[in-house]
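task queued by scheduler; priority normal; single chain, no ligands, no partner chains; default sampling; output format set to structure tokens
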Amino acid sequence: MSNTEHEKIAQIVGDYVDEYTGLPLSHTQSLGAIVIDNDSASIDITLGYPAAGVAESMAEAIRVEVLSHSSLSTATVNISSHIQSRARSSKIASLDAVKNIIAIASGKGGVGKSATALNVALALHLEGAKVGLLDADIYGPSQPLMLGIPSDRRPEVQDQKYFVPIEAYGLQTMSMGYLVTDKTPMVWRGPMVSGALTQMVNQTLWQDLDYLIIDMPPGTGDIQLTLSQQVPVTGAAVVTTPQDIALLDAKKGIEMFRKVNVPCLGIVENMSTHTCSECGHNEAIFGDGGGERIAEEYDVPLLGKLPLALEIRKGLDEGKPLVAVSPGSLLAIQYRHIARKLAAQLCIPNANTEAMRAGPKIIVSND
């Protein structure tokens, strides 16, 4: 097989546009070795985000593309993931074991931020990543209930200094809800809350995480700014509903992250539509197109749109989050799509131009 044909195969694979980054594979350093043996080829691709749910279908699409535009008779495409650390430098020792920190925020309460944070964390875990979840809502911690953690469960303490995260559904989790009871009101002033949050961040012993998802408190006040400035957040996603009032607050959330130099990775539009359980009629109760408008205005991706669904609410109330207990359901598939797209955003600004120009490694044998 000629060198021209080798280069052609490399170009075919390199030109394949990844659905989740929106870029050709050659632009994200995803191309690995291409081993050619007579009229067969083995092609390695390494994605920078977890993609267990789509790796097989992506590999098949690339295989078909290669066979359609080359003289090969067979081709094997091997897709794996390698998640790199893009966390900003930090003096917090407990975060040394965390590769990426993603904040899930909202400009106001009641838009489903905590539900989104939990199900996205679970979706990333299903896609093959090691994931932690920090419930940073000091006044109203809800993750322990949604995870089904007993109210009397307390985290273990190591070396009389660190909290050991509580494992739930494959996630490492920490919340103020583990340290107080549901009958203990957080009647604290701002500095006390900021201090408690900082202590929880500093003293949680995370173990080898690809992603730490932070369920941020709602709003854009002092606590949110303190957290954004003290924790080396890699990027943030903002949850909103299509409602005009919620969109106004979502803009404030994006602006807050801009002020502290945290990139906004995208928008999640929650409660987008509702489907009647009786007649099947689909209706945009809170308005239509809001997520698209704000994503376009701020030039950030719309990560996905989620419906107002009874299954989501019911599962969380029972401590059985939908993505964990029904991973193959339509709603879980939507969350997994959002999770992949969110994680893939971290791969986009890190493409190395020298590596792109170098191209993949091509190995030829028996030619």
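post-processing summary
- The first strand starts at residue 31 and ends at 37.
- The radius of gyration is 22 Å.
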